[in-house]
Write a structure and sequence with these properties.
5-stranded parallel beta sheet, 17 helices, 40% helix, 16% strand, Jelly Rolls
Length: 499
Amino acid sequence: MLKLNKEKKFLLFLIVGLVICIISYMRLFQIFLDKEKDVSNLYTYKNFLLKYTKSPRLIIEGGSNGHHSMDSLMFEKEFKMPTINLADNIAVPLKLKLTRLQKYATKGDIVIIPLGWHYFTAQNTSSSYFYEHILGGLKSYYTYTDTFDKFNILTHIQFSKFLYKLLDSNYFTSNREKKLNKLEILMNHINKFKNNDRGDYYHGEVSIDNFLKKNPICDDYIFIRQIKNGFKVSNIFKQNMNFIKKLEKKGVKFIFTWPVVVGDDCYKSNFSNQIYSFRDNMAKYLNDYGFTLIGDIDKNNFPKKYIYDTYAHINSEARDIRTKKLIEDIKNSPYNRFFTNKGNSIEFKNNLNTLYSTLVEFLKPIKFDKEYLVSNNNLLYIGWCNKENWGVWSEGSRSELVFKIDKKKIDKGFNLIIDSQIFASKDATEIVVNGKKIGLYILDGKNTIKIDKELIENDIIRVEFHHQNIKSPKELGINIDNRKIKLGLKSIKLTAFKK
């Protein structure tokens, strides 16, 4: 039997103890992420789109350049293919984005990546911004990493920050609350999807003055990393290209294009020769991998009048121009062959059915003879504005409720009592329950809708409201609210038919 002296025993115990501590820390960190209260934000919505929409899809990936410069609905209209925009932040390593695609992208999906200059030359896998926000909005990316990358991420996170959040009870919720919270987020996401939100950036009003004062020269901002490290392809990018080739074997196709810049002096600095030389080298490099970089950097260089909030972000007007031009470039490139088998409307319907099936899994039966305030319950499906203290307004020509009942407690049917108000003119609303027209109702005050047992197939009740004469408060000169509203839903209550 092998005998160890005291020094070797101490070293062995030290190594074993260290391994146990690392494993425990990684496990604790994962538990924290699992238990932390979910929020509805840019990152969770994009993950939702990738996870729950069906293939084949057109997927926009990359950093904020792609987030700001692509109009997904224009792609949908042209190529008859559901399109989702996953692009978010250049600080997130391309490897993690590809790992996410590896998990959820399937054969038939087409991925468009505007390759930001940083992706070509990045010397590090992650940035300080990524590590600072992994405990917040970017936490979902942690789940896509392998064990080695998880450990690497943890070594860059200040333990004190993690401990602070760990000890703050506001970050946690009970299992029941977490399920209800997930349901609310899911319904919110489904509503956004059915209202044609595909993850593109919403261009609100911003001030650009402070940014321009701090960053007067476009190239100094766009190429800050290249000025420091040189215009050369990094080993990290080479590794990512090998990863992409593996995804291609899975049946996922890739389209690469140049990033957008905006400013009157972009690509005109004293190192512009290096920029164009690097452009040529990158085009050749990707060609060696079997890819064509479509478009040209000059045609993706917009005048300063189109700037949004940085030299890498264009406004909505330029986004439309850029998207139309990219569609043209794709149609005139070898990539056009990817779109020969065009989709049709059934693809969109299948997508929506997938989302609906996911929603139903979370529902629990609601009780009879109990009033459910809309503001406190997850009854809304699609076609609603954000909840308010009194209830919620419908938005658009159609809105829906979805809820589950206990069919065993029903003899002949039940009454659905709706407490609501109507905006502007008192027009009748058509009500459809589980696909069958019930009738026209003026839903101002309390109304009783009779639902026969024959309409209840699998405990799920889906109530559609088809609105007429929809106007916004702005259109009627009331205020600046431009939401197209009609039905103000306050509460619902179910009562069984008397035997």
